[in-house]
## 1
Amino acid sequence: MGRVLISISKTLFSPSHASAQLRLLPIRATSRGFRMAAEPISSSSSTTPSSAIDFLTLCHRLKTTKRAGWVRREVQEPESIADHMYRMGIMALIASDIPGVNREKCMKMAIVHDIAEAIVGDITPSDGIPKEEKSRREREALDSMCELLGGGARAKEISDLWLEYEENSSVEAKLVKDFDKVEMILQALEYEKEQGKDLEEFFESTAGKFQTELGKSWALEVASRRKK
């Protein structure tokens, strides 16, 4: 009897469930009938077309989930999480070279730093969730996404970049955190001008929190344009 290979992939897209994947070994005829063995997919396996598309489909939520701060302020047609991360990536692309800073790493970190929000959503200080709990939920979500991707080098890179940003443990992380704040106040300025809103609270929330000279200079430029 010929060998039959069956693959089953089941994904649960929720904060409380991790994706599950099984690889079923070939069905074989035995004296007692048919027998099928199963084992978990190795975390070192490479990204398959199936796992890549599963992962990208989940990331679609980043394009459709609106940033919660703007929604609360009743901004019309607010940006999505993906919109925010994309412009941060552009910031890293156009930033001047800084000694000791890997700009390519900054670009990658910018498009990864909020990726767990595809599962947990955009948790903000207004939600009243402690920082430690927010981090725990996002870490759990990230682990599920990396498992969905099939483990391996790409999943590890995403996980490492996210953790480095979360822990603010490198010069790249500090710069990307500044980009995060600059992008927010620039977006606030644009909404103020386009929709006649007063979004002072967003500027106040970032005051004195920039860690790099580049971040400080860009923030000052945004503030100067707000006064005009």
Note: The radius of gyration is 22 Å.
## 2
Amino acid sequence: MSQQTATVDDFEKPKSITGGCLCGSIRYHASFADDHDFLQSSGSCQCTQCRRTTGTLVFIAHTVSLSNLTYLTSTETLKHFQATPGFQRAFCADCGSFLYWREESQDNLALAVGSVDPEFLVAGGFGFALANCSSNNVWCQNEIKGVTDGVIGKERGVKWATSSEEGIRM
């Protein structure tokens, strides 16, 4: 199946992916259980913190279990920053690449889909599986009219004004 014809009912799903930072000092491998829910694991955020961390208007993430993520390289340059207590943002100290966001009380993390290797996102045809945004799309009150308000498909996912725990559904 080609990337262009993927739908929420029919899309290719990877068994695993690899990715890392821009300079290559941090590389990871993530595997997915047979019952991994690719639709409920993909979401987005438009909060100011994610915008400043990623340098993008919309942060697209895919939730991965910590037990299914392994590092292929040293994590010496992997650094964490807490803009909000209890929440980690991980990046490479050498090149600045943002890799994930994590609520410390959870056993998973929100992997930055932009850090996934292109052979999975583009050539492998798994871009839809990883970045479909069919789950929670948070801080949509920060949408920029005419720019980001149409990025996340209105036919998929749940749009929240702020966070999914505290927010108002849009």
Note: The mean pLDDT is 86.
## 3
Amino acid sequence: MGNDGGSIPRRNEMVREKKKGEQADRKTQLATMNYFCALSKQPLHEPVVADGMGRLFNREAVLEYLLDPKAFGDGTRICGHIKSIKDVKTLNLRPNPEFSKSDSKKSAMLTYDEQPSAPFICPITRKEMNGNIPFEFIWSCGCVVSAQARKEMPDSA
């Protein structure tokens, strides 16, 4: 075992530390937020609504939650702050012409490095809404643009 003067042990050989818990991959989380409804976990499809926190929902899922809050197991934890349909805003999303319906079914079965085409794009920069680039929406009109396009727009717009 040593420790007789012939070896010099390091700290990591002598002290056992707790193993760190597993953490979800940030890239996967961001992609999931832009491809799937936060409430129903189904792929996003028009009409899409967002709450004040920026979470994306299918409008049907929110209506179903408002009618029966127990319809979704974790519904009160995810959107307990939504009390009426006025608490969400319908988004004006630009569909991605390169996106196909088969991509939405494949997106759940992709490996780590694969990235499907996103269902929506920024109307100004034409960048895909896939989680790699931050997107923002304007509450007054529901327009969705990339953060880069928002920074490039003049303040008066």
Note: The first strand starts at residue 48 and ends at 50.
## 4
Amino acid sequence: MTTRTTTSTTSSTSSENILIYYEYSHNTDQLSFILLFQQRVRQQLQQQLPQPLVQPVTSTTSSTSATSTTTTTTTQAPTQLWSVSSRSGLISSYANFKFSWTALTTRNATIAFQMQNKPGYWYVDDVSVIAGGTEKLVNGGFETGSLPPWIRTTPNGACGGTAGSVTSSLGNGGAGGGTPKTGTYYVGDGSETCYDQVQQSFGVTMGIVYNISFWIKSANYGSSGPEYIAVVIL
């Protein structure tokens, strides 16, 4: 006679019941049953275990953005430091004029003497531009006996009369005529129908203050025409 025995085992995984049925005959040895039971439990548990999570693939995108640089150019309008339209008070003796000027940009600036005098002359000597204790001009006293690195320009075209130049004797015949402030040489200018310019360029740095000094006088030759002189930073 064969006796059939039914054994049930319940295992709980993730709130689910695993029901395993094993049947064996009366003649089946106990060890074989235990091994078979364990194998079936492992199979059931593997089926009930949650599947591994699929990790998302992280994609990193690097982007390089172009940098746009905008350059703003600041310009500085010409600055008239001083001007007169009459030689009154400037005859015979030199007068000294001093100014402070601040550069708004880093560039080459120009100091220009614009002169017109008929029938007389303007005289200029000992011109200086100093920043931080350093003289920026070359030949400011005109003692080389020649104009360079100063230059004469004619922004109004040909003016007639006597062009601005370095001299040691121009206008000596008039009252208070041509003499230097110091040394031997100076600039004399007798342009008649318009003004010409005697000028020199020098490097400037934004934000720096420049101390400017010059000496000017005129000779008395009567008054028959326009008289004008101006000092401008371009």
Note: Residues 193 and 207 are 38 Å apart (CA to CA).
